[in-house]
């Protein structure tokens, strides 16, 4: 396999033919903020948080193949300002009340916002009305926190072979749905053994009777910022 | 840090909050003495002054859930050169804003009429009571807010960091461990 180098914020990053900028950066221990990217799944390129400038042009680093000699900028004021604005839009579009969320401290959205120094939501809140689905005996779906990253969809389809989840609607009306006539999780073959039960980066797919098991101070991102551990084994519950 | 020649005036208040952020403010402990060398308090639970006069810094805890909250917030904005939203409720509505997906009449009905044991309940309508807002709003949706200290509550250390940064003329910044939303 042929190899090459590109620069990321001035540092040489080696890559192998076929690797994306994100893959090569992660292999080199460099953090590029991201939410919908997960190393075990095909990139979706939708959250746009991993946008970098490659030879001056903005592109998603999770889908862009690394090219020899490319000059890639990621950790700059201008790019991080745009990333912060994307995060702020995610926060106001849903209902993200961290103090009462079981995923707080283990949440990639929250940890990424800490990383980028997001001090306020800036925009006006939508305060949408999204009922939860508590029909399943073991799992709860709280759609209020969904950021449409599609990781559960990819996991259920590509790993579990079940297609339990899907995105429905377009634009601002896009929402996560459950693939059952009733629309309820209880009426699918979703189970705890599914990969889809363990990939949600936020607090949508939650194991019941497990909430707040870890004290504040001992949760994943209490210990280290997300830049130090972009894909840690998230502590559940 | 060079001390300002004149003490800065600071006002604080709690709107639709729980005073938890004020309690956290007291958690700066003996650093309060160092702070008192640099600032004096205008309206605040510490002084019990009822209206905010011209101030350098206004610190507002809690979101906006009724007409009086909006009135007080506007008084703060009109009088304070720098306005700081402190805590989850001020920053994004927080716990009170979790009523926003329900209709206000349905909430009042549930609390004062329908709940078990309330046979003669009635919705309070004393003219002295401020009217509740249809939705709970964070501060920045109504006035310009200059700085935010998120957290439920933010730690005493986070509050100290922002205040000392501001008093020293630096842009406040909270690093890992100090910035948190819960």
What does this entry look like structurally?
The complex is a heterodimer of chains A (about 240) and B (about 180). Chain A is an alpha+beta fold. Chain A has two domains: about 60 residues, Ubiquitin-like (UB roll), CATH 3.10.20; about 120 residues, Alpha-Beta Plaits (2-Layer Sandwich). Chain A contains five helices and nine strands; from the N terminus they run E-E-H-E-E-E-H-H-E-H-E-E-E-H. In chain A, the strands form three sheets. In chain A, strands 2-1-5-3-4 form a five-stranded mixed sheet, with helices on one face. Chain A has a two-stranded antiparallel ribbon with strand order 6-9. Chain A is globular and about 55 Å long. The relative contact order of chain A is 0.14. With about 180 residues, chain B is α/β, with parallel strands linked by helices. Chain B has a domain of about 120 residues: Rossmann fold (3-Layer(aba) Sandwich). Chain B has a five-stranded parallel sheet with strand order 2-1-3-5-7, sandwiched between helices. Chain B is elongated. The mean pLDDT of chain B is about 95. Classes of the chains: A alpha+beta (about 240), B alpha/beta (about 180). Chains A and B meet through helix 3 of A and helix 4 and strand 7 of B.
């Amino acid at each position: 396999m042929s190899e090459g180098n590109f620069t990321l914020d001035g540092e040489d990053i080696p890559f192998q033919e076929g690797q994306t900028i994100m893959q090569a950066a992660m292999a080199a221990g460099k953090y590029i903020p991201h939410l919908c990217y997960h190393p075990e799944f095909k990139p979706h390129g939708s959250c746009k948080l991993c946008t970098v400038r490659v030879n001056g042009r903005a592109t998603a680093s999770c889908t862009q193949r690394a090219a020899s000699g490319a000059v890639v900028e990621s950790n700059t004021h201008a790019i991080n300002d745009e990333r912060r604005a994307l995060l702020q839009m995610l926060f106001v579009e849903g209902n993200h009340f961290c103090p009462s969320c079981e995923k707080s401290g283990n949440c990639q959205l929250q940890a990424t916002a800490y990383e980028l120094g997001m001090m306020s939501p800036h925009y006006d809140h939508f305060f949408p009305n999204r009922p939860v689905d508590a029909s399943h005996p073991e799992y709860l779906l709280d759609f209020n926190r969904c950021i449409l990253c599609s990781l559960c969809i990819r996991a259920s389809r590509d790993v579990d072979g079940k297609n339990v989840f899907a995105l429905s609607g377009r634009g601002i009306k896009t929402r996560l749905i459950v693939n059952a006539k009733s629309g309820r999780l209880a009426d699918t073959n979703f189970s705890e053994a599914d990969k889809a039960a363990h990939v949600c980066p936020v607090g949508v797919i939650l194991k019941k009777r497990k909430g707040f098991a870890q004290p504040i101070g001992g949760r994943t991102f209490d210990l280290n910022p997300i830049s130090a551990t972009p894909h840690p084994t998230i502590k559940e519950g | 840090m060079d001390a300002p020649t004149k003490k800065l005036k600071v006002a604080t208040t709690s709107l639709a909050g729980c005073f938890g952020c004020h309690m956290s403010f007291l958690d700066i402990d003996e650093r309060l003495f160092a702070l008192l060398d640099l600032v004096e308090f205008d309206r605040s639970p510490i002084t019990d002054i009822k209206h905010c006069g011209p101030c350098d810094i206004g610190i507002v805890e809690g979101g906006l859930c009724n007409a009086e909250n909006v009135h007080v917030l506007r008084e703060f904005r009109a009088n304070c050169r720098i306005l700081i939203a402190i805590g989850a409720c001020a920053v994004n509505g927080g716990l009170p804003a979790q009523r926003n997906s329900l209709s206000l009449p349905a909430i009042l009905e549930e609390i004062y009429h329908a709940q078990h044991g309330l046979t003669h309940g009635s919705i309070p309508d004393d003219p002295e009571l401020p009217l509740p807002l249809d939705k709970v709003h964070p501060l920045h949706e109504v006035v310009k807010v200059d700085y935010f200290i998120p957290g439920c509550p933010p730690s005493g250390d986070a509050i100290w960091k922002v205040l000392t940064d501001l008093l020293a003329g630096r842009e406040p910044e909270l690093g890992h461990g100090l910035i948190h939303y819960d």
